[in-house]
Amino acid sequence: ASGGKGIGGRTRSIRERVPPLLTDLYQFTMAYAYWRAGRHEEHAVFELFFRDNPFGGGFSLFAGVHDCLLFLRNFRFADEDVEFLRSVMPPDTDPAFFQFLRCLDCSGVTLHSVPEGTVVFARVPLMEVAGPLPVVQLLETSLLCLVNYASLVCTNAARFRLAAGPKRKLLEMGLRRAQGPDGGLTASRYTHIGGFDLTSNVQAGFLFGIPVAGTMAHSYVTSFTSLEEVWPQTLSAVNGDHNLVDIISLTKGWLSRVCELLGAEPGKIHEGELAAFLSYAIAYPQNFLPVIDSYSVGCSGLLNFCAVALVLCELGYRPVGVRLDSGDLCKQSLDVRRVFRLCSEHFSIPAFDSLIIVGTNNISEESLAELNSKISVVGVGTHLVTCTKQPSLGCVYKLVEVRGRPRMKVSEDPEKSTVPGRKAVYRLIDAEGHPFLDVVCLAVESPPEAGLPLSCYPLGCNHTALSVTPARVTCLRQEPLCSAAETRAKVQSSLQTLHPRHKRLQKPDSYTVALSQKLHNMVKEIQKGSSNNTNFLLAN
Amino acid sequence: ASGGKGIGGRTRSIRERVPPLLTDLYQFTMAYAYWRAGRHEEHAVFELFFRDNPFGGGFSLFAGVHDCLLFLRNFRFADEDVEFLRSVMPPDTDPAFFQFLRCLDCSGVTLHSVPEGTVVFARVPLMEVAGPLPVVQLLETSLLCLVNYASLVCTNAARFRLAAGPKRKLLEMGLRRAQGPDGGLTASRYTHIGGFDLTSNVQAGFLFGIPVAGTMAHSYVTSFTSLEEVWPQTLSAVNGDHNLVDIISLTKGWLSRVCELLGAEPGKIHEGELAAFLSYAIAYPQNFLPVIDSYSVGCSGLLNFCAVALVLCELGYRPVGVRLDSGDLCKQSLDVRRVFRLCSEHFSIPAFDSLIIVGTNNISEESLAELNSKISVVGVGTHLVTCTKQPSLGCVYKLVEVRGRPRMKVSEDPEKSTVPGRKAVYRLIDAEGHPFLDVVCLAVESPPEAGLPLSCYPLGCNHTALSVTPARVTCLRQEPLCSAAETRAKVQSSLQTLHPRHKRLQKPDSYTVALSQKLHNMVKEIQKGSSNNTNFLLAN
Predict the structure, then answer these.
(1) What pTM, to 2 d.p., does this model score?
(2) CB count, 10 Å around CB of B25?
(3) What would be the CATH architecture of the domain defined by A169-386?
(4) What percent of chain A has pLDDT over 90?
(5) Domain layout of chain B by residue ranges
(6) Partners of residue B284 in chain A, C-beta under 8 Å
(7) Which residues form the Nicotinate phosphoribosyltransferase C-terminal domain (chains A, B) (predicted)?
(8) Which A residues, 164 through 203, put their C-beta within 8 Å of a C-beta on chain B?
(9) Please, which of A21, A237, B68, B500 could form a disulfide with B203 given CB 3.0 to 4.6 Å?
(10) What does the pLDDT look like over A25-56, one tens digit per residue?
(11) Residues 6+ apart with CB under 8 A from A274
């Protein structure tokens, strides 16, 4: 499939979104050097992981896997790609290399990955890419580009979901603040998987089937100045009879009663705002949810809303609620709720008790956690999509095996050393059902067994062995592909099983990732070999 | 033109990148309410601006204008777009509205904009979009999405350029940390306009003609273990004769001499690293620039580089330099330079004096400013493309006129009030050639004149009039479209004329933006009118 109808909806062709030239030039210069040295058939294995959980958190979600698969399936150079490369590579590059590129695809590449949406931890190998050395090298930047932001923003969404609690509806509305069009689409897509319910981005609804939401902006309100602009000035009741009601005089009547009930000054009410609300209610009598802070919530917006909503109720419609977009949302929502209750009681309109309040004022993880339960829908833009607290995830792609032999970067900085060889990762679950340790083993090792003690070496404190007995063991790379909706559900259920101490948003306990005894031994051997360099200068 | 070959190179069709559904749902619900009220032919004017310069700076660059133009030119709904909208709008939406959408385009819309790459300031109207009310409303999110990140990352690039000084080459290499594929491309495109010389992103080279650069990653170095992997093991000299030289023994000889010269321990040198360098040098004898910190710069990488580079020099080639990617770049670059000089003198190889040092270790604006002049090429990734310091620009799109009548949002927060009416912006230049004040006038006013005193009202201190006499006056919206290369040059020349006190990276003096006398008077009148609401409740 060329990606026209991808997993999760009508995605644009991956070949267009991620052409094979969308990578760093050094991938090509290295590929040429490998080819030139006759190493283009050598089998190599790269591993993808990150070194720290983002946002100072205790966990991450891994995302972007489906796009990586589509990318690999469609990886092929067009003639114009190759001609462009010829123009930028040094003039002494052997022309036969470009012929090699022309025939290249990923048929010899295998990808093993932690599934889309898995809860993961720092230093766990998330993806293994194996195949001919120059080919798997070429894939580096594109794969990193596809998983880094997807995982980051998905994790950010999951944190907002944890801060919001399970009941509140969360709306993503960050398109205008994203890194251009595709950044916005990627944000909508992966924040939905991470736990958001709705998006304002219509194209994301179209492509990925995410429910869309939205009603009006302040400009709609300020575009009206007087009730004369309301047209038509009539509305019929919902109950079948087609008698048209003069909605202007009906509204004025309700507004007077509301002002009287609340002791409000009619002189401070904006007529243009009332006209805007009324006009919107006539267009959408069943979906009335205006933004009420264009002028003043207490002196104008809330009163205008109540008047129009009472008209709708009188005609048998059900208004939906209000949106607050500035100021102290907590304080305002209490006032709004109080007024709704007063109207409900005074005018005997029980529908006023189930009106909702939507809050959308520059919401951050912290301000979301502080919102009260009066606000049942929260829209989040900038802080969600730009990941203000940490706007990038540092996934890296490291060589771990060449020609069947483990490769390791032995750095002077132990944090930057890599763990060699092909691996399998097992998650150990305790008796309460909480995962408590991920153990990274050699791929050829037999998996840990439930109920049997296992000796392993936690990363970060390399020399201390730890013995653990899992109640259950799962393999992190053994799941079939699933739909976006299934992935989204899986995210929430896996977060559910994660112990609260690991999912605390601030200062969580760090989750243990350990090497198996055999892998630990291999690391030690290679380190020893590396420090005992045979002196090749004297060897010839 | 459908955008296939846009300004600045082979851009992907704007219709694909920014389909008309790539906007917030509320634009459509508002458009419907306007249409329903018979307001779809009403002429409206929106204005785009931001309230604060990003990064705590004193200026910004405005970018994304060309994409906005292409977007408007190609704005049309496909049948499937309209069908999707029908499925998400409330079921009581009048079907004739969808017919209206099907015929809609931007032929009735005019766009006036500050040109691409202009130095701009907070609160100056940057773009004016005029046309039928529902159409110009629909454009909001897409236009904001196209200019926000483009302007932000272009401004960030200009700040990195200021920190780097005019001579150093700057390389953008942020693709893997951007918000997905298109985020990376947008970053490459606008950082080049903002002052970067090179990009690592090959696709950006292909699409936008930006020069590309890159040589090797650490994985290339760690993929080699011994000199036996080097192939071919011969190289011929550059001077025409085709005698193949045994490059292994030649290299060992030079390495021994280098170790002796520097008093280095041959036992600490990594053979795999030497093999990698040699292999690369055989592939690219004229482009040798390896990364030398895979193991240890001082004990291995630098020595291996010198040996291979001396071989190349002996054979008549010119090695290019080294890349440093970790640790203290300043300190290391001094050591590297010292060793180059020693080799140059001791072996009488003057080419060693012109070797370059490339630095690429998590460079920020601050760390760039602290680099010494030994490092002549700097690669920047994460901090450049994610704009870590402030990952979004808050451009807004506000209604300023409907049916020829000025509209103003009179907010309780004076910062959030808007300035009504259609405007022209003039930049006043002082006798030294520095711009010193932008004055926002009504479009119908005659422009300020050079040499004549002008009374105006600086924004932020609304009641104090200021009298200024410009030596020269330019209109901010009177330039023809130009190519990316011309824009890039213009950015640097306009930054040149900006007074140093405004372009200081930390705590700059703020540039004055003022309203003309007439515009100021209009604002005051509307504010007065707004507080004297006629009580429409009593009017009927």
Answers:
(1) 0.95
(2) 25
(3) Alpha-Beta Barrel (3.20)
(4) 87
(5) 5-165+391-532, 169-386
(6) 29, 32-33, 90, 92-93
(7) 422-522
(8) 173, 175-187, 200-203
(9) A21
(10) 999 999 999 999 999 999 999 999 999 999 99
(11) A227, A251, A255, A304, A307, A308, B536
